[in-house]
Design a protein that fits this description.
This protein is an all-beta fold. The protein has one domain. 0% of the residues lie in helices and 53% in strands. The chain contains no helices and 8 strands. The chain has a 6-stranded antiparallel β-sheet with strand order 6-7-1-4-5-8, with no helix packed on it. It has a two-stranded antiparallel ribbon with strand order 2-3. A hairpin with a 2-residue loop joins strand 6 and strand 7.
């Protein structure tokens, strides 16, 4: 698969937060954390961990991964 334009393929990283004796999955947030595995136009984001907008209209699911518009990337970690 080749990503086109100003999009990247992001493998979502699942974060868990321990609260007392219970482990809570951080799914309720509007921001997701992921690892960029493919990119359309070179953007120096390849294999970087990023925060991206989870519910953007330009975010699409593909085989458990997300295709994200570069404009929806909020931060590089």
């Amino acid at each position: 698969m080749q990503i086109l334009g100003n999009r990247v393929l992001v493998k979502r990283l699942v974060e868990e937060v321990k609260e007392g004796f219970q482990t809570v999955d951080v799914e309720d947030s509007f921001i997701s954390k992921g690892l960029v595995t493919e990119e359309g136009t070179p953007s120096n984001l390849l294999y970087r961990t990023v925060l991206f907008a989870k519910y953007s209209p330009d975010t699409h699911d593909y085989n458990g991964m997300k295709i994200v518009n570069i404009d929806d990337i909020l931060a590089i970690l």
